[in-house]
TrEMBL record:
SUPFAM superfamilies: ATPase domain of HSP90 chaperone/DNA topoisomerase II/histidine kinase, Homodimeric domain of signal transducing histidine kinase, PYP-like sensor domain (PAS domain). Keywords: ATP-binding, Kinase, Nucleotide-binding, Phosphoprotein, Transferase, Two-component regulatory system. The lineage of its organism: Bacteria, Bacillati, Bacillota, Bacilli, Bacillales. It comes from Fictibacillus iocasae. This is histidine kinase. The keyword Nucleotide-binding applies. Pfam families: HATPase_c, HisKA, PAS_3, PAS_4, PAS_9. SMART domains: HATPase_c (SM00387), HisKA (SM00388), PAC (SM00086), PAS (SM00091). It catalyses: ATP + protein L-histidine = ADP + protein N-phospho-L-histidine. Its EC number is 2.7.13.3. InterPro entries: HATPase_C_sf (IPR036890), HATPase_dom (IPR003594), His_kinase_dom (IPR005467), HisK_dim/P_dom (IPR003661), HisK_dim/P_sf (IPR036097), PAC (IPR001610), PAS (IPR000014), PAS-assoc_C (IPR000700).
Length: 619
């Protein structure tokens, strides 16, 4: 056994001067664990500040090593002597300033020729930066693995030879191939690119290798079961710290559902465009400011305009009198996002006006705002003229029937007047005054009857204004009372006090009530009672006509208002058609209920202000 006494110290002192300049950990221990020598790097690492460290074990040295670290060092020293071979350990040491360093230590035992323990040489190096990079790499790998696992898109990672080195779970679900099948294939490798797209795919990979960036594009790929799917693909490269190409990342997103919706949308758009292109209705897509986005060919047929209609606004074609109504409709659709119905006149390319009945529907964007309005219109110019002719025809028919009653009613007072004229020659002063009073009364009655007849017959400009419904009802009753008296029919009028005026066209309202009351009189054979009731109903006035006539069969209630469909032997059905049209123009409501043999009840509701609610009919 070689003695390590003071005779070896001078050589060791020379040795220390040599090892102090080495920037690595060097320490020499005796078999009993006491320090024989160490360089300054080792002393600094362990924080040993005393000069006389030689001959002392680590436990008795003043340092900043923890008890746990000292214990591990002693165990690794013992392990090296026991194994009689080098032992590698890693120790995390806390410095004097509180920071931590990581030392990688190699403990090499030495023995003399007889195999007796000589010295334990401990060398080491600071691997703190390396350890930090390993930890950062480990975190990065864990993060990458987490990203790959949590990604909903399919991810394929290739090396520079375009061999698969990694796929995520989403890839396996999308294409049906597992990572093992892609990496450790025994036969032919899995293929996800269709034959007709392989050349394009190879060109993309070549461009990537040359450093060219590839934008996301849409294509198709094949699943393991052979199904073809639509995908969007993005490519990127993987490079090392020095910029050398190491591989490729390809990300696939399944857009089959989106493509299916797009194809269905295109097919649907093509179908609707086909319908619009061949429809006789005026179909248009209009921007909120009134400018045309689309106009069907029917605009050319009806208004004479060609494609240049898209360069103008709907207001440019609109009749000046209809501008306010259309602006109100557009305001309603933009603010309330509700459909509308309106009737207005558009200017024909040759200068005359075309009446169009139009429905508008708002189209909302993803934010709930109106981005356009789709309108469906039809030319009702001829229909309006026909309705006016029918109304005039019906009015003449009513006047003709009234003429007989009026003639009878006028003949009675005329007979009286003729008789009183003769009596005046023989009467004294007092009786003469009474005769003149009666004669004046009869003349006034004749004047009222003729006046009412002229009011119905005289054409009037259609203008909406407030009208007194009580006065209208009284004048209609006066006009038809003679016809009722002839059939021994009593007309009873019940009115609520202080009825508000209704908003409408007085002449049309009067024609409405003449037609309804005349129908009630004609439905009764001989004698009976017709009751007219007027009462307030919220923002309207309701008039109810109840007769004791023959009634209307249930199957015919549904057809009321249709022209030339009537329950009368010589009727035309135009009277009720005119009534329904008048109610539509006044945005009112009319409802019929009847029972055969017991009579018919008609309820008419007229607004007391310019109404916004739609026209309703109940039969």
């Amino acid at each position: 056994m070689i003695s390590l006494d003071n005779e070896l110290l001078p050589p060791l002192g020379t040795f220390k001067r040599m090892i102090d300049v080495i920037p690595e950990f060097i320490c020499i221990k005796k078999p009993d664990g006491t320090w024989l020598e160490a360089n300054q790097f080792a002393l600094d690492m362990f924080g040993i500040q005393i000069e006389n460290y030689r001959g002392k074990s680590t436990e008795f040295l003043q340092s900043h090593l923890t008890a746990a670290t000292i214990h591990r060092c002693r165990l690794s020293d013992h392990e090296a002597w026991e194994k009689r071979a080098a032992v590698k350990t890693v120790e995390e040491i806390e410095t004097l300033h509180g920071s931590k360093i990581v030392l990688e230590l190699v403990k090499q035992p030495t023995f003399d020729r007889d195999g007796n323990p000589l010295i334990l040489i401990i060398t080491g190096r600071d691997i703190t930066p390396h350890k930090q990079k390993e930890e950062e790499l480990s975190v990065a790998l864990d993060l990458l693995e987490s990203v790959l696992k949590g990604a909903t898109d399919a991810i394929l990672i290739l090396n520079t030879r375009r061999e698969c080195i990694k796929v995520n779970e989403a890839f396996e679900k999308m294409f049906g191939w597992t990572e093992e099948e892609f990496i450790d294939f025994e036969d032919e490798p899995p293929v996800i690119t269709p034959n007709h797209l392989r050349e394009a795919s190879n060109k993309i990979m070549e461009q990537l290798q040359e450093g060219t960036s590839i934008p996301i594009y849409e294509t198709q790929r094949i699943k393991k079961n052979g199904d073809m799917i639509d995908v969007s693909v993005s490519f990127s490269t993987i490079s090392d710290m020095e910029g050398r190409l190491m591989g490729f990342v390809i990300i696939y997103r399944d857009i089959s559902s989106q493509k299916k919706v797009e194809r269905a949308l295109r097919e649907s758009e093509a179908k609707y465009r086909l319908i619009a292109e061949h429809s006789t209705d005026l179909i248009a897509v209009i921007e909120p400011d009134g400018k045309f986005q689309y106009a069907s060919p029917s605009y050319s047929h009806v208004l004479g305009y060609s494609s240049d209609i898209l360069d103008c606004s709907l207001v440019d074609l609109l009749h000046p009198d209809d501008t306010e109504d259309l602006i109100n409709c557009f305001t309603q659709v933009l603010v309330k996002k509700q459909p509308f119905q309106v009737e207005f006149c558009l200017k024909h390319v040759h200068g005359h006006w075309v009446t169009v009945e139009t429905n508008g529907v708002p189209i909302l964007n993803d934010h709930g705002r109106v981005e356009s309005i789709v309108t469906f219109g039809r030319d009702v110019t001829k229909a309006k003229k026909t309705e006016e002719l029918i109304r005039k025809s019906e009015k003449l028919s009513v006047l003709g029937e009234l003429a007989a009653g009026v003639a009878h009613e006028i003949r009675n007072p005329l007979t009286s007047l003729k008789g009183f004229t003769k009596l005046l020659h023989e009467a004294d002063g007092e009786i003469k005054g009474e005769y003149l009073r009666i004669m004046e009364s009869e003349l006034n009655r004749i004047n009222e009857i003729v006046g009412e007849l002229m009011l119905v017959a005289k054409p009037q400009a259609v203008s909406f204004e407030y009208a007194n419904l009580s006065e209208i009802i009284n004048s209609v009753v006066l006009l038809l009372e003679t016809q009722a008296i002839i059939k021994n029919i009593q007309i009873i009028v019940k009115m609520e006090k202080d009825l508000p005026p209704v908003y409408g066209v007085e002449n049309q309202i009067k024609q409405l009530f003449i037609n309804l009351l005349k129908n009630a009189i004609e439905s009764m054979e001989n004698e009976g009672i017709i009751t007219l009731e007027l009462e307030r109903k919220e923002l309207a006035v309701q008039m109810t006509i109840q007769d004791q006539g023959c009634g209307i069969p249930k199957d015919r209630l549904k057809t009321l208002g249709e022209p030339f469909y009537t329950t009368k032997d010589k009727g035309t059905g135009l009277g009720l058609m005119v009534c329904f049209k008048i109610m539509e123009e006044h945005s009112g409501e009319i409802e019929f209920s009847s029972e055969e043999g017991k009579g018919t009840r008609v309820e008419v509701l007229l607004p007391t202000h310019p109404p916004a609610r739609p026209f309703k009919t109940h039969r």
